[in-house]
Amino acid sequence: MADPKGFLNASREDWPRRPIEERVRDWDEVYVPGALLPIIRTQADRCMDCGIPFCHEACPLGNLIPDWNDLVSRDDWRAASDRLHATNNFPEFTGRLCPAPCEAGCVLAINQPAVTIKNVEVAIADRAWEEGFAPPRPPDRLSGRTVAVIGSGPAGLAAAQQLTRAGHTVAVYERDDRLGGLMRYGIPEFKMEKRHLERRLEQMRAEGTKFRTSTAVGRDIDAAGLRTRYDAVVLTVGATAWRELPVPGRELDGIHQAMEYLPLANRVREGDMEASPLSAAGKHVVIVGGGDTGADCLGTAIREGAASVTQLDIYTQPGTERDEDTEPWPTYPKIYRLSAAHEEARELRTAPSAEADARLFAASTLRFTGDANGHVRALHLVEVDAERRPIPGTGRRLPADLVLLALGFSGPDRSDGLVDQLGLRLDPRGTIARDADFATNVPGVYAAGDAARGQSLIVWAIAEGRAVAAAVDRQLTGSSQLPAPIGPYDRPMTV
Questions:
Q1: What is the mean pLDDT of residues 101-121?
Q2: Pfam families from the xrefs (predicted)?
Q3: Is the four-CA dihedral 382, 385, 387, 389 of positive or negative sign?
């Protein structure tokens, strides 16, 4: 460690965000450009280089966090990039999109604000691109084996890159017209500008990975037939079957799933259309669901010029400090967090009915009502207790011209026919069943990411992609030097 007293002498300082009034008028990333590097060496110095770095265990990728913190503090960016990329294919993605369970597991977080691990990570990743520390790494020779990866989200891209670098000929099939999965059309530009994704895709093309867009396996191509053309098939199709809200009035116009709304806003940014047909402009918007997807809808609706935006969370409002009895260190605690979108909503007072920011906690939707034309005009809710039981006399009505359902996902979408054509076995949760080697019940077919694990974090998706690549490589060649950071049954640390 460069400064053994760094954690004593320096306080935590995060990457500052741009002024709210400025950033809500554009779709650029919310952080101040160039403001991270001046503070990042001091922040890296706060790493304690502790004897047992629990940040390793909190991160499924097993990132070598104390190593690259020390290298950044010494201004050795090339070595820091090498350490970072040794365990993570896409640190510029995780550094922007991951909620940082590593920071919850930071030893310093026992009694102080954690090291800004996520900020150090993104600083290394961005510096690596600027200085040319992340060149393409094509294989020295080809194995003669072929692999199809279905799905180009973080799990699919990680698996494809690892297998390509191992010498296999890899083709990635993506049903959308552009690559990236949810990173492309589900993540708003203000959280991660798509230039980061494009840059990494160009690296993968230079390494030899082939991409096939606008190709839905199961609909455009027979899945069973595709299996016969490749030595192995890796399914990384995500968990895109969204959860519904079966309440009276759900059939009214103006009620949409978040993943119907967000892709259209992203397509506007891609230049496919001038305005989204589901734009929130001038509308009273209610978002049902308190997670990250709901926050993405919130920030998007604010930028589109909504008249008001309210977000409903069925859970009670968490405290600002970790509950050591129920969520002790180093587990990831459920605490009150203020995302950039919530910060914007609070400052702009987008939800007059909410107390703190745009969120109404402990709120359950009862029904929707509409006008004579069958369009939603109001959402009726009731407050609930910790057991989600309605509290009498707490019913309320919110004006709603646009309702967005952000209730999560239950498993892979079966409408394209892929699951049935291959004859895949599903587990009771509706996700693709697999064994300890990531293999499905169909010989030569493997499953990774949210399609098999269930809805999870981007770091788990990348870890799954790296691990399934090692399993496939081992099956094709008899052994593998590829790292396998997790097993299919590993789960985050809990009590």
A1: 96
A2: Fer4_20, Pyr_redox_2
A3: negative
Dump the DSSP string for 90-107.
Answer: -HHHHHHH---HHHHT-G
Tell me how far apart the alpha carbons of residues 12 and 30 are, in angstroms, rounded to a whole number.
19
Residues comprising the chain, all counted: 495
Tokens of 355: 């107390």
Q: Tell me how far apart the alpha carbons of residues 404 and 378 are, in angstroms, rounded to a whole number.
A: 13
Taking each helix axis from N to C end, the angle separating 154-165 and 194-207, rounded to the nearest 10 degrees, works out to: 30
**pLDDT tens figures, 164-222:** 999 999 999 999 999 999 999 999 999 999 999 999 999 999 999 999 999 999 999 99
What is the average pLDDT across 5-26? 96
Distance (Å) of CA 95 to CA 92, 198, 344: 5, 16, 21
Say what the pTM is: 0.97
CA geometry: angle at 309 spanning 303 and 311, to 5°?
120
Buried b (16+ CB within 10 A) or exposed e, 190-205: bbbbbebbeebbebbe
Closest CA to 311 of 324, 321, 302: 302
pLDDT in tens, 383-405: 999 999 999 999 999 999 999 99
Rounded to the nearest angstrom, the gap between the alpha carbon of residue 93 and the centroid of all alpha carbons in its chain is 9
Let me know: does 333 contact 322? Beta carbons within 8 Å.
yes
At 49, the pLDDT band (50, 70, 90 cuts) reads confident
Q: Is the confidence at residue 1, as pLDDT, over 70?
A: no
Q: DSSP state, 431?
A: S
Q: How far apart are CA 215 and CA 207, in angstroms?
A: 22
| SS3 of residue 231 by DSSP | coil
**Nearest-CA neighbor of 81 among 34, 126, 33?**
126
Beta bridge partners of 432: 426
